[in-house]
Specification:
The chain is mainly alpha-helical. It is built from 14 helices and no strands.
């Protein structure tokens, strides 16, 4: 049985101790601690719709590409009531802007989602009331029913991006993106990076073992495996897809990947 608490504490401490050129370890810890307060938050309808917009645009794109356009995206998709009134001519206008991410699927998804969002608000009174109607924190089953509902009703949300929305609206679920799946697979927690549900369940085990909210578990592992993290000023993560920095990794004793490649990695 894996020692979830020890594994997480070693990942967390290694991430902080590596530090960065821009932030001290104390400052990195303070920024990470901000993610301990996401669960249980409530959002306005405008905030909920904006989360749906940016998740659709980030899906399948490099974060840096979307970050560079994020203000323009918000300009074109300011609120669900405005966007729900967009027609094909408006979609063409958005797509004709050379400074915009000119992806018709994403633009049309955000327009259609605004219309669905508006109908939900009209029916339930608010999007928060709609989310609460599923009692998503009552049980894992209820949480997964909400996940299935969101994926069905909103365009541009797939198996992973729906989890992204749920994570960002403060629900107790980890986002099983390729970075987190890679780390969990190397640790022997999953057999394949296609096992999204199992990855989510493993994330819950880390939360239970450490007492940390899942959003905090998510950001620590995600940052540990990203090539770089502008938010935390880290020039490089540690558990990288190519050339992982095993020499400074704190969890090599628990890592199947390291055990299988130890002789090669020690010579790098």
């Amino acid at each position: 049985m894996k020692d979830y608490k020890t594994i997480f504490e070693k990942v967390e401490s290694t991430l902080i101790s590596v530090g960065s050129a821009n932030l001290s370890p104390d400052r990195i810890r303070a920024k990470l601690d901000e993610f301990k307060h996401f669960e249980g938050k409530t959002f306005s309808d405008a905030e909920y719709y904006w989360i749906l917009v940016y998740v659709v645009f980030y899906a399948g794109f490099k974060a840096a590409t979307v970050n560079a356009k994020i203000d323009l995206i918000r300009q074109y998709f300011p609120d669900y009531e405005t966007v729900a009134g967009y027609d094909e001519n408006k979609a063409d206008e958005v797509l004709s802007d050379p400074k915009m991410i000119r992806n018709r699927h994403k633009v049309q998804a955000c327009i259609e989602n605004a219309k669905v969002f508006k109908s939900i608000v009209n029916e339930y009174g608010s999007f928060q009331a709609y989310i609460d109607s599923f009692s998503p924190t009552a049980s894992f089953e209820d949480l997964m029913l909400l996940k299935e509902e969101l994926e069905y009703r909103f365009k541009g949300l797939g198996r992973i991006t729906t989890y992204h929305v749920m994570t960002d609206i403060g629900l107790p679920v980890l986002k099983p993106d390729r970075v987190v799946c890679r780390i969990f697979q190397r640790l022997g927690l999953i057999e394949s990076d296609k096992q999204l549900l199992k990855t989510v369940i493993q994330g819950r085990k880390f939360a239970q073992a450490t007492g940390h909210p899942i959003r905090y578990i998510d950001i620590v592992f995600a940052t540990y495996g990203h090539v770089e993290s502008q938010e935390f000023g880290l020039a490089s993560g540690i558990c990288l897809e190519q050339n992982p920095l095993c020499s400074i990794c704190g969890v090599t004793d628990y890592c199947d990947y390291f055990a299988q490649n130890a002789s090669r990695l020690k010579t790098q």
